[in-house]
From TrEMBL:
PROSITE patterns: CYTC (PS51007). Signal peptide: none annotated. InterPro entries: Cyt_c-like_dom, Cyt_c-like_dom_sf, Cytochrome_c_Peroxidase/MauG, Di-haem_cyt_c_peroxidsae, Imelysin_sf. This is Cytochrome c domain-containing protein. The keyword Signal applies. The keyword Metal-binding applies. Keywords: Heme, Iron, Metal-binding, Oxidoreductase, Signal. It comes from Candidatus Kapaibacterium thiocyanatum. Its main location: other. It is found in: Cell envelope. GO terms for cellular component: cell envelope. GO terms for molecular function: cytochrome-c peroxidase activity; electron transfer activity; heme binding; metal ion binding.
Amino acid sequence: MKTFLTLLATFVCTALLTAWLSPDYQKLRRERLNAWIAASCDSVTSAMTTFRTACDGIRSDADLVDARSAYEAARRSYKRLEPLAEYLDNGFVAQFVNGAPLPRLDQKSQYVDILGPQGFQIIDELLHADDSTAMRTLTELRDKVHTLCGNMPDLLLELRGTRWTDRMMIEACRSAVVRISSMGIVAFDRPASEPSMEDDIVPLTTIMTISDGFRAQLESRTLAERHRKIAALVDKGIADLRHAAFDDFDRIAFLRDVMDPLYGALLDVQTDLGIEFITEVSPFPPAVNPRGRSMFATDFFNPLKSTGLQRDHVSADLVELGRTLFFDPILSSTNERACASCHQPERGFTDGHAKSVALGHDGTIDRNAPTMINAVFARRFFYDLRANRINDVISHVVTNEREFGSTLIDMIGRLRESSEYEAMFGKAFPNERNGAIDVANVGMAIAAYLSSLVSFDSPVDRYVRGEAIDLDPAVKRGFNLFMGRAACGTCHFAPSFAGYVPPSFTDSESEILGVPSRPDTMNAILDADKGRAAGILREQSVIYANSFKTPTIRNIALTAPYMHNGAYTTLDQIVQFYDLGGGRGIGIDHPYQTLAPDRINLTNKDYQDMIAFMRAITDTTGLTRRPARLPRVDRNRALDQRRVGGDY
């Protein structure tokens, strides 16, 4: 017994001594990062002061050159901190530091107050206009620079004061990988100045700086290869970007060989070191799945973010109930129209009409039917962004007199006349057997079904993930055009290729393109639909007139005709519209057009390559199954004549 106690005491003492002598890796990392942040913040402050002084001193074209040089230095100094800043306070960065150079509404005001753009990007436009214009707008330029210098200390103070955990460091790095892959390689931050692939070297270097903090702990656990892999990928990325020509850069190879593997390599560090995931410490689901390995995989996004559903609530029974409801015209007043009437699986969940047929064949509804595939990734819904949740969408459709023409009460009444539906709702909602058929549960079921209509498994996705050995050269060229010279990727952000704004994907963009009422390039007339300005009351502003949600181009080969009004019937017409500079390029002078009005000057081969890429981003595998039949309505046999998917 004495020997046992001696051995036990020795073991405990050894364990305690080992723990005491072992380095506190997390503390060391935090101290190291805080010192780097402090030095970087000082660099930003100094560079911004120099830039402000240079702008205040502009008197000649030579001074303008000096100011542009100082701008580049200030911008580079901020870019060092960008991975942490975007992660920590994406909203502040977008509004005050480095957001798109567009007016926006003041979200804190009870009125419809318009805020002018602030930050580096509007400064980029003012500073890099032609010399005569830049000299004429000096007062505005100086005002924007002084405002940025006034806002920057708040961000720097937040960065200095944050207690960075291991999870936050890894998440910031992975978020930065997403931003480089979606915004960096398309030069989103340079609306006017000469784009440069070398811009992305700075945040890549920051990713390496943060990753270096994990090196010692990885080596202590014989996991040094994890750090070496990250270092090798960053080194290759920097080598690829250095001196690369913007127009000729092979973006799809860069994503395949560097950025997507780097995204997965950072996940390996988090997993191997037992660092918690945000889903383990926060009740609020993130838009991006923290356990996803690839940016171009179906599990990259969290499809439940906009549904209000918890993962453990989504059962096969709930999804199947939602599928049945989606295809059942019992939701409409005439029992002839279903969700699938306008969202047909074989057409990429659209209907092939310029504008969908109205209830009773009484003309058409106001707009073209958008795809439902990957639709749950949006943060707001409808072309005018008037709905914030999927439940809101269902209510709008059911009660719209030209769509389903019903009331929510009547819809529920019809469903309750079916014993089969009662049984299906009972299985899907086992804790609500009495009265499970209600409006909320109908919405939850359809939302669960829509959350199953997700897929990033096209030939392009498989190639970027490294699963496909090769890809048609025309598709590669088209991808590089889309994400490069053609600038499509500045609005249709990868990997969704929609207006879901990276890297946090917590906002859905709308754009003013100047879409004509018909495909006429000689006598074009702006379509009369006011779009977002006719949506929710507080957005009824001139800056949103004719503004429409930016849709995904995934499965675009299946979803013709195009635009909110179905004005264009072919992909050639769509490419030409953008090539000419949108509405302004065909004679429509919209004062708030957000699409750059400059001609891209694409060649015929460019057209073919762009279309080849858009066709290759198609994937509906496993998504198109219809119910074999609809539930019987035993208490109202007249309803049993309805057809799966509706009559029209």
